[in-house]
């Protein structure tokens, strides 16, 4: 009962204070309409409320800024680690930080509303110079919470800064409603000379710079800080000729000192450190996109030595690693990327970039290990790292958000990494491992993977039928021919109803730079036709794989049937243009269709040859050479069948022609094969002419004999 009585008494006192404050505000408004400023008691009440709100934030969140690593000026990452970073064994600490961050976000949202209400009450009165320092301070705190509780800088909310500047001018007896934001800042900083307003205006200028930085308006920030530097020190010489004027101005800027401690939730000095880091980071990304790699390296090193959270520091190291990789320094790139993991063990993009560097170095074991670690980390589905300094509402990650950064930090779905493991194992000849990864991936597809993975342009996943065909190729190389047949049946059944009787697509590669509204419908029709062409290509490839699988199983009749189905399927494609076009201008799908037709003809011709159906084999090999005149496999099989048909002179002529003009091109043909889809790899390996030394000796003896006869 006593506690309830005390609580009731406290509520009555608070209600009384609110009534007193409301009465003072009403009286102040009445006097303001008559041209006078708010009374001192009202200003004191507002100042006390501002201090109470800021104090609630400061008490709850003591500042713990991360300590940046030292010694980055040499270009090499060092071993020093920020004190605030958690190692691999700090999972409980990380969970506590995540919980604390959630509480900080809730408190920030609550204080955002409270500061917003206080600002509205203050703006209910006409602007007056005595109240402007406090009003600008409340505006500064309010906008700090606006940006700090958002995922990125909200452009519309920057209008609050403009309103504050207009009220400053109005309090000084002038106006700036018709001016742009840049012109408004210039007018305020040049005409407002009241000493008490200088520090609040400088703080608001730093906040304006944060908004412009989030919008990549670097020149506007440079112009603003020139004005701020001139206002602070009129005798200071301009630094427009310096190497990086923006960073120089930011570092040299100092907010004017204030006699009385003000109620700030984030000091101007802390905001300055964030601006310096974010400006260097953003400029580094812009230079990286432009290809100016040495400048990129310097700017990103500057950012890494600045004031930021551990998550941003890890992102900077990832960008440094990518820059070093593009500069042709893979070992330096690995150092930076490993440093990113040391700083933030949840920086998954660093692992994917490490795998890419190892692939470039040809270290497949290390690459696969990195991909395996990435898959395990993604499977744990651990929460993303939060800022280790929740006290600071505006941090660099809010200000730097560009497409280049999003591309470098793209997060992979676990299934994408599983596919990369399968693909790299197949490319490296680790067939057994590839089969297991592909089967795991196909199992994920059965669980509805299509709804989970965004197949955007940045995804390493190809189209789903291509994954099935790659799996069939891996199974075939692993000797699991029946399983390969089953996987190909799945591709055939899924694509059959998507292929029209006739597929007509222009063979030539034509991609207009700008699509107009008039070409939209035609473009949609072309896309539909190309999709039909894709489906035709996938089904023909499935028949091709089945033909080679039956060949390996010793079933010649079934093999010929599947090769014939493949060739009949390809007759559905009828190019619109009949003129001869150079190979480099053909659509990639058309090139693949030509290769599939060639491989089917070779495969069926080999089966005809084994069954001693020599005339039918001859037609297939001749047709194959018409499609690809430089194909040595079709040429040598043609020589063999001509020899068996006792057309020895023709066989000898072809032998000399291809032996002399294509000697030593096996490696070149293998490299050309790599330009085709990975799922054709097993077919390309099987469609090779085996070494036939006895045939070579017979042809050489025949040539020797004919020369002797002609010399007589």
Describe this structure in words.
- This protein has 712 residues and is mainly alpha-helical.
- It has 30 helices and no strands.
- It has helices at 2-33, 40-60, 91-123, 132-148, 159-171, 181-191, 195-214, 218-232, 245-252, 268-290, 293-304, 310-326, 330-343, 348-361, 364-380, 396-399, 403-408, 414-427, 431-446, 464-477, 481-495, 520-552, 556-570, 588-610, 614-627, 632-644, 648-661, 666-673, 681-686, 693-711.
- The model is unreliable at 17-35, 63-100, 235-242, 383-390 and 511-523 (pLDDT under 50).
- The radius of gyration is 36 Å and the shape is elongated.
Task: Spell out the key features of this protein.
single chain; 712 residues; mainly alpha
State the gist of this model.
With 712 residues, this protein is mainly α. Helix content is 68%, strand content 0%.
Measured distance between first and last alpha carbons: 135 Å
Estimated radius of gyration: 36 Å
Helicity, as a percent range: 55-70%
- Class derived from helix and strand content: mainly alpha
Q: Report the biggest beta sheet as strand number plus sense, adding barrel if it closes.
A: none
> Which regions are unreliable across 5 or more consecutive residues at pLDDT < 50?
17-35, 63-100, 235-242, 383-390, 511-523
Strand element count:
0
Mean pLDDT level: 81
The helix count comes to 30
| Shape label | elongated
The sequence of SSEs as H and E is HHHHHHHHHHHHHHHHHHHHHHHHHHHHHH
Strand-residue fraction?
under 5%
Architecture blueprint of SSEs:
Blueprint: H1 2-33, H2 40-60, H3 91-123, H4 132-148, H5 159-171, H6 181-191, H7 195-214, H8 218-232, H9 245-252, H10 268-290, H11 293-304, H12 310-326, H13 330-343, H14 348-361, H15 364-380, H16 396-399, H17 403-408, H18 414-427, H19 431-446, H20 464-477, H21 481-495, H22 520-552, H23 556-570, H24 588-610, H25 614-627, H26 632-644, H27 648-661, H28 666-673, H29 681-686, H30 693-711
Helix pairs in contact: 2-3, 3-4, 4-5, 4-7, 5-6, 6-8, 7-8, 7-10, 8-9, 9-10, 10-11, 11-12, 12-13, 12-14, 13-14, 14-15, 15-18, 18-19, 19-20, 20-21, 20-22, 21-22, 22-23, 22-24, 23-24, 24-25, 24-26, 25-26, 26-27, 27-30
